[in-house]
Amino acid sequence: MALISVPANKSLLAKALATAMVVAGLMASVLTGVADAHGSTTDPPSRNYGCWQRWGSDFQNPTMAQQDPMCWQAWQADTNAMWNWNGLYREGVAGNHQGAIPNGQLCSGGRTGGMRYAALDNPGQWKAVTKPRQFTLTVTDQARHGADYLRVYVTNQGFNSTTQSLGWNNLQLVASTGRYAPAGQYQVAVNAGSRTGRHIVYVIWQASHSDQSYYFCNDVVFQ
Ligand SMILES: [Cu+2]
After folding, report:
1. DSSP readout, 94-159?
2. What is the predicted pLDDT for the residue at 170?
3. d(Cα 182, Cα 175) in Å, to the nearest integer?
């Protein structure tokens, strides 16, 4: 907030403070509502996008603790992880994703932005969407950044995302794309081979407007 010059009397000071608070409030609502929105996987939904979709209008409802416990713990940890579902990125990684992101922190992009997204790394009963083993994955790009590439990984058969934290060695690269011109959505065909049951689909979206890399954990159950 800009510094306020100290007015000569108290009522002027109160007026200036009130104005400053209104302006700050407007700025905050603009930032959360529109942001310079970035993006996320939306099908299957990333962890925080899914929590925002299901509970964004009802995030204080205590029944979430039973119905959707991993979303509950995420909302309790930091609501901004959901309000900023489109902001899970790092800058200046220069393609060295494994160097930038330690094992156990893949779903928070290496705890990008401090602890904001850290709850997304916690193993547990994240809501998962059912998918056939061959499916089309969609990244939604609200900012029309474009993509240098998308990389899609799937957890190895036997990995248990409800009890194990995710590391690079738990993943197999199953799709790697070329460039996408700026658009609202990018799609990639994913083949999960012979996998069955619950898995994490892990996605890297390398945006094209600058060195900005996005990281998404998406929970699925393969039929
Ligand atoms: Cu962006």
Report:
1. TT-HHHHS-TT-GGGTTTTTTTTTGGGG--S----EEE-SEEEEEEEETT---EEEEEEEEEPTT-
2. 98
3. 20
Rounded distance from Cα 40 to ligand 1 centre (Å): 10
Looking at the predicted structure, is the pLDDT value of residue 25 above 70?
Answer: no
Write the class of the CATH domain 37-222.
mainly beta
pLDDT at residue 183 above 70? Answer: yes
The rounded Å distance from CA 126 to ligand 1 centre is: 26
Instruction: For residue 157, name the pLDDT band (cuts at 50, 70, 90).
Output: very high
In angstroms, what is the span from residue 18 Cα to ligand 1's centroid?
Answer: 32
Alpha carbon of residue 162 to chain centroid = 19
pLDDT band at 148 (very low <50, low <70, confident <90, very high): very high
Is the pTM value of this prediction over 0.70? yes
Cβ–Cβ under 8 Å, residues 207 and 213: yes
